[in-house]
Amino acid sequence: MSDTNWELFLRDMALCLSTYQDRGPAVVWPERAHTVLPGLYGTYGREPADREWRPASPGTGAHGLAADLGHVMGYPVEAYERQLPAGTTLPLGRVGADILLFPLRGGARCRVENDGRADHRSGRVELRLRAGEMCYVPARHSCTLSEAVAPCELLLLVLHATP
Which of 96, 124, 126 is nearest to 108 (CA)? Predict the structure, then answer.
């Protein structure tokens, strides 16, 4: 993978965050995603038992993505990986921080809901999220993944922006 592909991918993630952070959920299709994704796949074995969020190991592409995005954004970013088995539902609830969620392989129904406020910045998003597409979920929103037709490998980036 060339540095240009990585830089374009990061640029689109940073643009999404600078536009939507603290405003509402958003979906982004970063440029060159399908070139970058193979370098982000998990290293924990992808066994069916891998159904818990695990921190991305140092030296992996996912860990490098978190570090590079944190450098660009100016705050810490942590990366977590897991599988969503076919036919299961994964409620994320409110993580307590903004997150970027995206499938590395496969896809799932993604529903992001607001915190109950009536203002226009607390929107709801529901879509089929596929590999290469990312969903930005603000801290005050909940997220549920479901309807994976095959095991879906997920990457979760937790953004520790200063309020």
Answer: 126
Q: What pLDDT does residue 48 have?
A: 45
Q: Which residue has the higher pLDDT, 50 or 131?
A: 131
Q: Which of 129, 59, 120 is nearest to 99 (CA)?
A: 129
Residue 147 CB-density burial (10 A; 0-12 exposed, 13-18 middle, 19+ buried) = middle
Separation of alpha carbons 74 and 91, rounded Å? 29
What CA dihedral angle connects 38, 40, 41 and 42, to 10 degrees? 160
Look at residue 42 and tell me whether its pLDDT is greater than 80: no
Confidence of residue 114 (pLDDT cuts 50, 70, 90): confident
Cα–Cα distances (Å) from 103 to 74, 118, 121, in that order, read: 25, 30, 25
Alpha helices in the chain (DSSP H): 3-20, 33-36, 61-73
